[in-house]
Amino acid sequence: MPSSCAAGRPQPAAGQTSTLILAVAAFVIVTTEFLMVGLLPALARDLSISVATAGQLVTLFAVVVMLFGPLLTARLAHIERKRMFGAVLVLFALSNALAAMAPNLWVLALARIVPALALPVFWGTASETAAQLAGPGRAGRAVATVYLGISAAMLFGIPLGTLAGDAIGWRGAFWALALLSALVALLLHFSMPALAGSPRVGLAQQARILRDPGLVAQVLLSVAVFTAMFTGYTYLAELLEKQALVPAAQVGWWLMGFGAVGLLGNWLGGRWVDRQPLAATAAFSVLLALGMLGTVALAQQHAGLVLALALWGIANTALYPICQIRVMKAAPQAQALAGTINVSAANGGIALGAMLGGASVAGWGVGSVGVAGALVAGAAALAALVLARWSLRKDA
């Protein structure tokens, strides 16, 4: 495994501090990526477009990540980590400011493209950095710590952004996120030690990992998992408003509850993925399907809806670190590139999920996204079990 640390590995305390700072940065980045989910209804009303059309901004972000992520990470992975992460956060601050000022859908789309270019570079290198700081036996837990930023974004960032959007408008929510991005960039600059990047390796040499059919299968599994997740999650705010009849002003609190239970999923995913990554993928994919189906079926019964959303939230958040570590373990010789390929694949799944969910909403109503997502999740669980059996036969 190539070293991503400076000549001397940081002391454990310094490594833990750096990992926590990366988790804070991840919080900002994930909030930027998915804040749009909570703002879709308000944004669509303000710009006089349909929710399904506004939802394609999620698709656009994901497609850009998918297309450019591996190439950009392969080209930039050698850059010193502190400088790279700082640049990413500054780009996020500027793009959020542009989104806040966007006069129309086209400028808003441009404001989404810029951070989409930087996001996979962060996730590929941050995951590798955290894993190497922690050491082989604790890589899953270290990456799960960084991925606490996802749970925190779902718990606080996205819901509070939704509430802020209701209180000060969706533009105000983006202004607040621009300021937060700049503040975290300063925190990283003054608190994180310098960490050397990966040795410079040619793109063709790095791309050789794609010759491994096992790795390719793992990446395709991530596409399926994220398609299932975002078929429903992209339209969760709309589902709560229209299907569960939750008042618009309260949607943010429901999303906060969704993120709160996700903390348990993050913890479980980080612990189980080091042992049996494919079995964990299958188990949480089944839980995801049950949660989405239950949300639709129990939308009018708030007690049952809470339980269904809890299952959905646990599975949804657990699958982030599970998918990332699962793919990184499949390519120990090029973990930064493997991690970024997985992020790109995941965003391909996000794009497909947003498109599938949008088509489902347009054709059968918002309640159908839970059923569509559950069907894809079931297929992903089956694929994970088949891949696990194939891997056992190959290693026998």
UniProtKB/TrEMBL annotation:
Q: Which GO terms describe its cellular component?
A: plasma membrane
Q: State the CDD domains in the record.
A: MFS_NepI_like
Q: Where does it live in the cell?
A: Cell membrane
Q: What is its main location?
A: membrane
Query: Could you list the residue ranges that cross the membrane?
Result: 20-43, 49-72, 84-102, 108-127, 139-161, 173-195, 215-236, 251-269, 278-299, 305-323, 335-356, 362-388
How does the protein associate with the membrane? Multi-pass membrane protein
Q: Tell me the keywords, alphabetical order.
A: Cell membrane, Membrane, Transmembrane, Transmembrane helix
Q: Which GO terms describe its molecular function?
A: transmembrane transporter activity
Task: Give the coiled coil ranges.
Answer: none
State the PANTHER family in the record.
PURINE EFFLUX PUMP PBUE
What is the protein name for this chain?
MFS transporter
